[in-house]
Specification:
Blueprint (H helix, E strand, L loop, with lengths): L1 H17 L10 H40 L4 H31 L6
Helix pairs in contact: 2-3
């Protein structure tokens, strides 16, 4: 897991350092359109990846707790469902942000 986070942080760092390479003057709108579309894609990618990892961890931990003590299932299940709903709401916020960014991309056709 540590290797994954090191790889993820180094990739994000490289992307942030590469942003000046994509800088273009105001006359060229195609670069800005491409960067906005890429931002919408990255927003959805990071949002769904984080949500999926969080939901998997939540479910695994809850099932492990229920397996160790089956009588605690009702006490564990309700907070687990609430945590899953909150995690899913964050993924939906990422979807809304991606739609807002997509709305900034003009139709070229």
């Amino acid at each position: 897991m540590k290797k994954f986070f090191v790889t993820l942080s180094s990739t994000i760092t490289l992307l942030l350092l590469a942003v000046p390479a994509f800088a273009q003057d105001a006359a060229d709108k195609a670069g800005a359109i491409g960067m906005t579309a890429m931002a919408a894609g990255i927003c959805m990618c990071v949002g769904t990846l984080g949500g999926a990892l969080s939901q998997a961890r939540t479910a695994a931990t809850a099932l492990e707790g229920i397996a160790r003590n089956p009588q605690s299932a009702p006490k564990v299940q309700t907070p687990m469902i609430i945590a899953l709903a909150m995690t899913e709401s964050l993924v939906l916020f990422a979807l809304v942000i991606a739609f807002f960014l997509q709305g900034k991309v003009p139709n070229l056709g």
